[in-house]
Amino acid sequence: MQRRLVLVRHGQSEWNLKNLFTGWKDPGLTEKGVEEAKAAGARLKAQDIKFDVAFTSKLQRAQRTNDLILAELGQRVPVIEDAALNERDYGELTGLNKDDARKTWGEQKVLMWRRSYEVPPPGGESLRDTVARALPYFVREILPRVLNGEQTLVTAHGNSLRALIMVLERLTPEALLRRELFTGAPIIYDVNPDSTIAAIKDLAG
Length: 205
Known about the structure:
By secondary structure, the chain is of the alpha/beta class. The chain has a domain at 4-17 and 28-89 and 140-202: Phosphoglycerate mutase-like (Rossmann fold). 43% of the residues lie in helices and 14% in strands. It contains eight helices and six strands. It has helices at residues 14-17, 31-46, 60-73, 98-105, 107-115, 127-147, 158-168, 173-178; strands at 4-9, 53-56, 79-81, 152-156, 187-191, 197-202. It has a six-stranded mixed sheet with strand order 3-2-4-1-5-6. The longest helix has 21 residues, at 127-147. The protein is globular, with a radius of gyration of 16 Å.
């Protein structure tokens, strides 16, 4: 039985382009983001993957990326949306230009909010909080389907996907913070029956 899980970070959004903290706000994809999503679909098509189910967040940039990937593959599968897969909530930073935030709070404080595992920005979530939200959903809803042999696509966000990757790749919090995820770049996991990873294929670029 083949147990395959594919994770994809959404294509470039309008707020990515403007260098804004996005979080739970809901901008659409840029033209580049649309092309990144289509390219992700083309890369997966070259791998001859036939999906059985797809999961995505409640935010349109992830949903549109998911739809474009499946369209490129020519596949129609059940798509399950859940806020557990939403991006990290950046609280008071949401909507701010990252350079302006550094001017307001200082380089070190903004860096701490962005790159520490445990410290949240004002009114927002830390990466640990995002893990606590996304990981139980993954274990309860997504992983059982993978272990049952369903080829599963998850299209979500940089930080919600890091929450899943932390467990899949057995990363420490420190290593997780260094784990880069590129927009529109599929990561394919072949999963063993005990939920450990047999192989990883990163289709970035």
